[in-house]
Amino acid sequence: MSDRHIEKLIARASQGDAAAFGRVYDLYVDRVFAFARSRVRTIQDAEDLTEVAFTKAWQAIGSYDDRGLPFTAWLFRIARNAVIDSHRKSERQPETVDISAAAALQDSLRVEDEVIMRLDSEHVRAALRELTEEQASVIIMRFMWDMSLKDVADALGKTEGAVKAMQHRAVRSLATLLGKEADEDDS
Amino acid sequence: MIHDEYTESTPGDEQLIAGAVARASEKMSTRSKREIRRRLMAAAGGTPFRVQRLVFTRAAAAFTVTATLLGGVSAAAAASLPGDLLYSLKRGAEDVAVAMLPDGAAEQDFLFALAARRGDEMNRLLSRGASSAEVDGAIDAFKRAVSCAYGTDGVQADLGDATAAQTRFVDRIRTMAATVQASYEAAVREQQSPAGSSGSGSSGVPSSNQPSATPSIPGSGGSGSSTGSSPSESAQPGSGGSSGGPGIDSGSGSGDSSDSGAPQGSRETTGGLKEVRKP
Questions:
Q1: CATH topology for A1-95?
Q2: What is the ipTM, given to two decimal places?
């Protein structure tokens, strides 16, 4: 889908076109979910946050102005606020890894692969959760949402230089955290 | 929590982290996506939405404006032509209606109707012997209206999803362009012949400062861009070879840029008649 087509969908959604908003949801749901999943421990929590974020986006899209924030930055802000609100409201839960989907697989080798993959992914997500909220946001926007430095800066209300420095710190911290986890696994 | 100490990362680190983060990026199950979507759509459709109400209000207001245009004193405004006292009222009402109509087929139909209306005005101005400035203005307005109608919703060259009303308007617009083309050619032939050398404009066509170009119609001939074929070619295949007639030009004006002061695509000739470049 071209950028122009997406812009039109967003414009229609902002005029109250629910079907257009449905298409926008289809386009962005994976990104919002991936962000939410990196900030909470369970799939269910991430799904709940995704739904909250899109509900808020629908309620606010009538006032969205494309001359202000780029849409991805605008949507990320909403998702981020939903995550922050959720963290404020809930207490920390014991860390869990959801491997139920892997257990449903028939082939035992595939189950093992799936569990290993999920555990690896969970290591990364656990490391992401150890970052500061802003650092994690930068990593997600840059590497999961594939956003430009400028758009990330817009979403966070910072300068591009500040975001660049933050990205360097976040990458270094994440590399250290993942290295520690790898060492712990080996020992 | 990691302390925010500044340590420079290397491009290699970034690449590794980008890969790890991408791998850790989990997708929601299709079932969950569908469930959330269903709930969102139910909430969006079931709950009165501020903007939806606004659109409804706009549509109602547009209806009122249109109804006003069709009756009473406004009937005179609706029949008015550029230069008439009530013409600005007519155009103002149209602008309000466009602004108030919700996006979609209704707006698209209305824009095509406006383009056809501009074409009607152009022809009526020609037939009543309006000044060249008025005709020029009407042609510009026609071009803008056609571009606007085509540009609103990506109709462009692909009219596959156009409504029946739009298709009718497109045909009408093409016929208008062809009519204008024919009128100009007739006028030019008359003025170029010895009997018609007076340049009095008796044919109802302005005798001097002829409009430089008649509108291009996007979609006809495939592109609507400055390089596309003119609507006259598609609407009036036999007219392409005549010389001296007013070309239906895309407005690029290329090739005649040395004629400073003259409108694009045209050139002043003796007797006050313009020799208009064919597309």
A1: Rna Polymerase Sigma Factor; Chain: A (1.10.1740)
A2: 0.74
